[in-house]
Amino acid sequence: MDKELHIPGIGLGFRREMAEDMIALTSGKPDFIELAPENWMGMGGYWGKILRRATEAYPVICHGLSLSIGSPDELDMNFLRSLKSFLDEHDVQLYSEHLSYSKCDNAHLYDLLPIPFREDAVKHIAERIEVVQDVLERAMVLENVSYYTPVAAEMDEATFISSIVNESGCKLLLDINNVYVNAFNHQYDPKTFLSSLPLASVAYIHMAGHEQVAPDLIIDTHGQDVIEPVYELFSWALPKLNPVPVLLERDFNIPEMSVLVGEMNNLRNLAHKAWSKQTC
Question: What pLDDT is attached to residue 222?
Fold first, then answer.
């Protein structure tokens, strides 16, 4: 398979539960895969061989879990150097992380916690992005995350994200489901929010499912099918964006591969409809 990443391409998150099925696909293949490098770095044996087969078959994007870009702790330089080796070894074309933090006082919190929407946080994160990009020799891509309560906010989320992108020069991973979840939970208009973001800086898109656990609360789970209102928000956003890769996330409660292929086909059709004129 040609490993060049053709844009717009539709990808699928690479999980061990579906690894063999993804590698064996003969039709309905994703155009690329995305994996969490922390789950695969230093892997040998059976799973190391599976990883090699997958990265030889598909272009690869990496979406990290533990960098903790918003943490007050120092960046883990040993981790960054190991990460660079992994990205180089597997010819990873894009590396993204979450605009959140998951480590404090050298303790890993095993969750993606919201960063206070403050000017001092903007400056702190922009400085750390510069270090990460220097070590990795790649542009960094940061994802807007779901959150369930704001913390000591001095500005709104869209201004916070825009300020980080503008000050650091990083790229944006636009998670449409997270926009929908936050808009529902915090009662704002998702289209107004999207219009306030630096959409020219979007490097790729995430699409996923969620679970409504109360009349006024949605949880971002990545364990359900993408629902129609999220597809609608995706379709609304596409003409405002440059053609970029689109990734379908499914982390658990994984259905038959045919279901995931159907969701990828839905995304592919919507992206083609919106972007075909731009790519002519």
Answer: 87
Task: Give the domain ranges of the chain.
Answer: 10-275
> How far is Cα 204 from Cα 212, in angstroms, rounded to an integer?
26
- Rounded distance, CA 124 to CA 28, Å? 43
- Full-model pTM: 0.93
User: What pLDDT, on the 0 to 100 scale, is given for residue 149?
Assistant: 81
What is the token pair recorded at 35?
A: 């994996």
ω before 8 within 30° of 0 (cis)?
Answer: yes
pLDDT digits (tens, 9 = 90+) for 63-96: 999 899 988 889 999 999 999 999 999 999 899 9
Full 3-state SS string of the chain: CCCCCCCCCEEEECCHHHHHHHHHCCCCCCCEEEECHHHCCCCCHHHHHHHHHHHHHCCEEEECCCCCCCCCCCCCHHHHHHHHHHHHHCCCCEEEEECCEEEECCEEEEEEECCCCCHHHHHHHHHHHHHHHHHHCCCEEEECCCCCCCCCCCCCHHHHHHHHHHHHCCEEEEEHHHHHHHHHHHCCCHHHHHHCCCHHHEEEEEECCCEEEECCEEECCCCCCCCHHHHHHHHHHHHHCCCCCEEECCCCCCCCHHHHHHHHHHHHHHHHHHHCCCCC
Fold of 10-275: TIM Barrel (3.20.20)
pLDDT at 221 over 60: yes
